């Protein structure tokens, strides 16, 4: 009997296990009653390519029936100030999506972007620079989050002409602002399962100002023992970024350094046209293209309607998560990534020749 059953037992032991059925959907968010109510978002199309890329977001939101309504305002970079009704709208709605605003060079004209951040106390700028599947870059495994202090430093705008031909520009660093941006960076790392926070500085030269920033970062780091903390001088940081960017995880920086580091990281990971970002404070958030939109004012791109909408589409996915609509954010992000991965529809900056509308239509087709 044993001899007869042995082959049967061997067959049973070596038979491949039946496939485990996995649910096609998972519980990602348990809403409170009323969380599904549509939200109003302030929309600033901006200058140049701004109306093209914000229009792309409007189309995609409409196509997937996202619970978002836009309150649109006409704002341009050559205005002296942000209109009061725009500020009131953002304060009421708590969330804003904006295209790029041109900032005139010189002439004493204040940047409306800086005005907006100061008025709403949007003290943290976040840019996520990462490799998109299917988009070839010089470096792989890049996934860097640059968190930049957004309200002081060289951007405080405290300048005056001492005597003709001599201008004094003040860099302001405070312990309060340094501590809260460091805390935001460590909170972000902790909540998003990030392992390392690196503070970027120039404390070897600006010993008091950047020294205060580092001191604040060290104090906050001591409260997060599970997260590794590093420090790097800004010039070495730029060199390391272009040679070995995969070593960085979350970076926390004063204002000016963060602008430089974020744009460098964006260029490494695929270009400013695909990097999402946002500005957040205690009460309000403004989402926009993550790295500086250097092509905002390029009339040729506007005329040919070939602006890349990917960065703002991904920023709007960040906005949807901020509004606690995670499934809509996932659908949008996955659709954009599938279009980039397939490579059929790409704008010129990504090596293709598609128009903005062709990319939008491709993203919409992937939503379903």
From TrEMBL:
One Gene Ontology term from the biological process aspect of the record: tricarboxylic acid cycle
GO cellular component: mitochondrion
Location of the Isopropylmalate dehydrogenase-like domain: 40-363
Assigned keywords, A-Z: Magnesium, Manganese, Metal-binding, Mitochondrion, NAD, Oxidoreductase, Transit peptide, Tricarboxylic acid cycle
Main localisation: mitochondrion
Gene Ontology terms, MF aspect: isocitrate dehydrogenase (NAD+) activity; metal ion binding
SMART domains reported in the protein's UniProt record: Iso_dh
InterPro entries (alphabetical): Isocitrate_DH_NAD, IsoPropMal-DH-like_dom
Localization terms from the record: Mitochondrion
Family assignment from sequence similarity: Belongs to the isocitrate and isopropylmalate dehydrogenases family.
Function: Performs an essential role in the oxidative function of the citric acid cycle.
The name this protein goes by in its record: Isopropylmalate dehydrogenase-like domain-containing protein
Organism: Lactuca sativa
